[in-house]
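Re: [ENG-882] Designed sequences occasionally contain unexpected residues at chain ends

Forwarding the minimal case from QA. Structure tokens:
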């Protein structure tokens, strides 16, 4: 045994490469003498030492030796080679082992050998072939030189750590954090998820998001990334019943709720995307998108597997987490959709309720106004009696209120299932003809043809007579409301096992998009042209419900401007009716009892004193009130679709003003354009154009924009009043209202309108006077500027003479003058030069308005440097730093811009003259999206409270003794910027410098 504990016959390899590790044993057992490296005994000591250190370390280490970069590595590095590169590459050139990455690591090694300096790489991306395919890997390592006995770098010591797991884990975790999305719909949720997965194509080359449709029998492709829509690999829809042949096992995964791996994608599909690896995915995983609280998944997710990574447990776990995040996003979105649906349902209920109350309020308040108004007048009358038109109006509107209340009660009973129908044998032809005939006189007086074609039926029909009466009367009155010319036809026929009632008109018709909603309760066709806007919106809904009570159905056909046809169909006989409600022993009757209220109301739609064809007429004093001439020349236009309301308003207003009436907003607008009234009194709810639309049209037209408008409405409450006033109304009067209040408000608004007109006339006169004064002032300013220019120009010659002669005396005769005389002469010369400078500045300022503006793209940076060079040439020895930002561009007149810079940079030059380290900057900055140029200095500064004074002529912020100047420079700058449409401002502090900012239109960096 020697002194180191080795046997005397121990080889050098056994002594320096001791240890029982796999690589130590392999190196010891290798016959190196047969290799290019030669026997170990011949190896340089530096190589033997480095290999010994490498083998003795547990950290992954590889050595690269000599020009061929022979490889030696330890047990820690062994797993990085995989199964395909060990042990055959031990002691072999490195380029043979790592040919796929040699273009990356080879140059790095050359740099270490050439410079002798170590390198460091962190998480370097390398595509390595370790297991028979190119694998995405990441390494953190250093290359350190191994110096031989002469100190030359002959090898490289490479300590390395594979960071692939950490890099992939961080990347995948970042993606999962981003997938915590909030979406309003399931479609939006998967779209967001697809967008996020598309950012990590290295882990997920493509993704398909399939969700069940509403039927549950089909999967639809809602989102995708990496694959186009509707290809062989991405069908847009896949049926599940029965399962169709599909590209993916979607139906099976959906049914079993378990993920599946799909292999050999390159054989299944002709072309899959090769991004980002340059090679298409060979595998994909199909996963269910779970749905909380449901056994059946919400859909299926297809995720492509990277061809550069083995699909190990970590990779699979990542895919499962992706599917969980997608499921959570979809579940949350579905919950939001369900919540939103509940909210919309409640909102719809609230809308229907609001519409109902709005309609009913309007329908109740109008007749109440027409009942309460005449009653108030009667109570104020000494004889306290209603008579003539007032009495008839009260009676008509009381009947209308009764019919409205009865309709509402009927509808509520039907909806609540509390209606007690009584089906009796009825001569339906005679009964229907009698109901229709009630309208004969009204139709003729309105210029319409009424056709009643109800031949006798072969058997009695079993109907609830009161309900059938409401069906017929509602349909006929509805037809009359929307028919202005032509015919209304009522026909009754037996058609097979059914009886059909047809009500057809040649009226205004119903738009196609409104037909599906025509039987909805409280629904009205917006903008429909009718004889009146009145109605609760339940007439057709009630007809439909009453028809259903008879086991029948109703349908409608309509063409805009051609007419509408309603067809009510009920079964013949009584077998379809509840037996307990059928009366079999009653007499067959056809009495008509309930048509009067319908006909009476319809008469009000046509019984107008204003001509329907023109829509406008001027009313005359009513016989119901004392006739007296209007108290003013004002003219009031009344717009209301209710004839009784129009007549009532006329009776109130005509005693004081001239009154004109129309029956809807469109007619009111046309009348106002032809002959603008002094005030418009309009109902809110009217056909064709309602009161709010009328108001907007009036305000948008210059001819009518200032006409006072008072709105009458049945809507109550502060919100309704504020809404009406915010629309632009001058006043808002809620029905029912008192006559005294109406008259008071109309009178007040007419008086205010008269005062506004007078104020407008005075303002116009003042504006004309002011314009004349401004013209005169502008003329005098021009004359003054011309005078200043002329005087300044004439003063320059004598001032030059004074300066020249003073200078000559100082140069030739100074020795004959005393010291005080020489000083006084210098003062004269200085004053003369200062006066010349002031005159030059004044001339320059006055010329600014005369010079034609010539705009072009100007390099402000280059112009600023030229001005700076001129300033520096005047004081070449001055210590000053002048910084100019490159590529400052402006759209300006180059000569005026140079003058601007001469003044601003000259000021900065002057006010930094006393600074030991003067610094001036010309640059730009973005302020509120606009480029502002600036000149900044660290000079004397000024009080920021005096900033506006700085830009006025002859206003100085420092004394002449401190800093000489004329006080015109900044005024010139402002005038230049005014001409360009720009502006200037400053920031400053005393003793801390000043910054002047200015803008120019179209300025850019």
């Amino acid at each position: 045994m020697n002194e180191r504990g080795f046997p005397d016959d121990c080889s050098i390899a056994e002594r320096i490469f001791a240890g029982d590790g796999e690589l130590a044993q392999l190196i010891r057992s290798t016959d190196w003498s047969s290799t290019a490296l030669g026997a170990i005994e011949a190896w340089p000591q530096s190589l033997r030492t480095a290999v010994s250190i490498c083998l003795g370390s547990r950290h992954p280490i590889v050595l690269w030796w000599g020009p061929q970069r022979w490889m030696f590595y330890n047990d820690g590095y062994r797993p990085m080679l995989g199964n395909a590169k060990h042990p055959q590459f031990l002691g072999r050139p490195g380029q043979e082992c790592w040919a796929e990455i040699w273009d990356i690591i080879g140059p790095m090694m050359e740099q270490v050998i050439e410079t002798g300096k170590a390198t460091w790489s962190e998480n370097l991306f390398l595509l390595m072939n370790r297991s028979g395919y190119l694998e995405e890997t990441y390494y953190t390592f250093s290359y350190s030189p191994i110096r031989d006995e002469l100190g030359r770098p002959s090898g490289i010591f490479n300590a390395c750590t594979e960071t692939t797991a950490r890099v992939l884990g961080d990347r995948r975790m970042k993606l999962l954090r981003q997938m915590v999305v909030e979406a309003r719909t399931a479609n939006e949720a998967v779209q967001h998820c697809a967008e996020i997965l598309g950012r990590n194509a290295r882990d997920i080359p493509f993704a398909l998001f399939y969700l069940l449709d509403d039927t549950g029998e089909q999967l639809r492709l809602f989102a995708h990334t990496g694959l186009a829509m509707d290809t062989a690999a991405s069908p847009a829809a896949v049926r599940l019943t029965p399962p169709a042949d599909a590209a993916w096992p979607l139906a099976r995964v959906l049914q079993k709720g378990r993920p599946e791996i799909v292999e050999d994608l390159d054989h299944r599909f002709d072309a899959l995307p090769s991004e980002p690896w340059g090679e298409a995915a060979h595998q994909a995983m199909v996963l269910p998108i779970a749905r909380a609280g449901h056994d059946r998944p919400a859909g299926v997710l297809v995720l492509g597997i990277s061809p550069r990574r083995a699909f190990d447990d970590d990779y699979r776990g990542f895919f499962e987490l992706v599917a969980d995040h997608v499921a959570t996003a979809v579940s949350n979105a579905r919950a939001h959709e369900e919540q939103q649906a509940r909210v919309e349902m409640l909102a719809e209920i609230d809308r229907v309720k609001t519409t109902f109350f709005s309609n009913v309020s309007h329908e109740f308040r109008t007749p109440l106004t027409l009942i309460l108004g005449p009653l108030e007048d009667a109570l104020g009358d000494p004889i306290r009696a209603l008579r003539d038109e007032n009495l008839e109006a009260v009676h008509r509107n009381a009947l209308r209120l009764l019919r409205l209340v009865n309709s509402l009660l009927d509808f509520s009973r039907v909806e609540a299932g509390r209606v007690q129908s009584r089906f009796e044998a009825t001569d339906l032809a005679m009964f229907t003809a009698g109901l229709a005939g009630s309208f004969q006189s009204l139709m003729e007086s309105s210029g319409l043809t009424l056709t009643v074609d109800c031949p006798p039926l072969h058997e009695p029909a079993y109907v609830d007579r009161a309900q059938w009466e409401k069906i017929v009367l509602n349909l006929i009155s509805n037809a009359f409301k929307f028919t202005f010319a032509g015919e209304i036809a009522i026909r009754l026929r037996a058609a097979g096992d059914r009886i059909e009632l047809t009500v057809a008109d040649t009226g205004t018709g119903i738009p196609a998009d409104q037909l599906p909603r025509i039987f909805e309760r409280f629904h009205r066709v917006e903008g429909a042209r009718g004889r009146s806007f009145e109605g609760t919106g339940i007439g057709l809904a009630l007809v439909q419900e009453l028809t259903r009570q008879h086991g029948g159905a109703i349908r409608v056909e309509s063409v805009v401007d051609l007419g509408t046809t309603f067809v009510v169909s009920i079964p013949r006989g009584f077998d379809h009716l509840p037996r307990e409600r059928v009366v079999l022993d009653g007499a067959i009757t056809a009495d008509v009892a309930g048509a009067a209220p319908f006909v009476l109301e319809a008469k009000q739609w046509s019984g107008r004193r204003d001509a329907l064809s023109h829509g406008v007429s001027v009313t005359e004093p009513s016989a119901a009130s004392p006739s007296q001439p209007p108290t003013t020349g004002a003219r009031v236009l009344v717009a209301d679709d209710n004839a009784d309301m129009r007549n009532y308003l006329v009776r109130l207003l005509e005693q004081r003003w001239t009154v004109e009436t129309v029956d809807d907003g469109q007619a009111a607008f046309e009348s106002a354009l032809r002959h603008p009234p002094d005030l418009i009194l309009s109902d809110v709810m009217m056909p064709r154009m309602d009161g709010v639309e009328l108001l907007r049209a009036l305000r948008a037209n210059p001819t009518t924009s200032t006409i006072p408008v008072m709105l009458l409405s049945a809507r109550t409450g502060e919100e309704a009043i504020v809404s009406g006033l915010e629309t632009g109304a001058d006043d808002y009067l809620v029905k029912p209202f008192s006559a005294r209040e109406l008259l008071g408000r109309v009178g007040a608004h007419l008086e205010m309108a008269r005062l506004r007109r007078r104020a407008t006339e005075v303002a116009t006169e003042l504006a004309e006077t002011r314009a004349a004064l401004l013209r005169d002032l502008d003329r005098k300013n021009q004359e003054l500027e011309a005078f200043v220019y002329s005087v300044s120009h004439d003063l320059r010659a004598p001032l030059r003479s004074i300066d020249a002669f003073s200078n000559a005396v100082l140069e030739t005769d100074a020795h004959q003058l005393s010291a005080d005389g020489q000083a006084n002469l210098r003062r004269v010369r200085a004053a003369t030069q200062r006066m010349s400078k002031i005159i030059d500045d004044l001339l320059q300022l006055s010329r600014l308005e005369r010079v034609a503006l010539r705009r072009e793209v100007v390099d402000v940076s280059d112009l600023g440097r030229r001005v700076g060079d001129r300033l520096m040439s005047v004081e070449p020895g001055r210590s000053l730093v002048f910084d100019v930002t490159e590529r400052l561009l402006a759209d300006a007149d180059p000569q005026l811009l140079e003058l601007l810079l001469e003044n601003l940079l000259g000021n900065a030059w002057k006010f930094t003259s006393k600074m030991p380290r003067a610094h001036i900057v010309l640059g730009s900055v973005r302020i509120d999206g606009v480029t502002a140029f600036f000149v900044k200095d660290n000079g004397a500064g000024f009080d920021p409270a005096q900033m506006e004074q700085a830009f006025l002529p002859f206003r100085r912020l420092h004394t002449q003794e401190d800093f000489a100047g004329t006080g015109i420079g900044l005024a010139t700058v402002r005038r230049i910027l005014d001409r360009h449409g720009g502006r200037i401002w400053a920031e400053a502090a005393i003793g801390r410098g000043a910054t002047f900012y200015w803008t120019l239109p179209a300025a850019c960096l």
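QA comment: On inspection the terminal residues look reasonable. The chain is about 40% helix and 20% strand. Proposing we downgrade this to a documentation issue.
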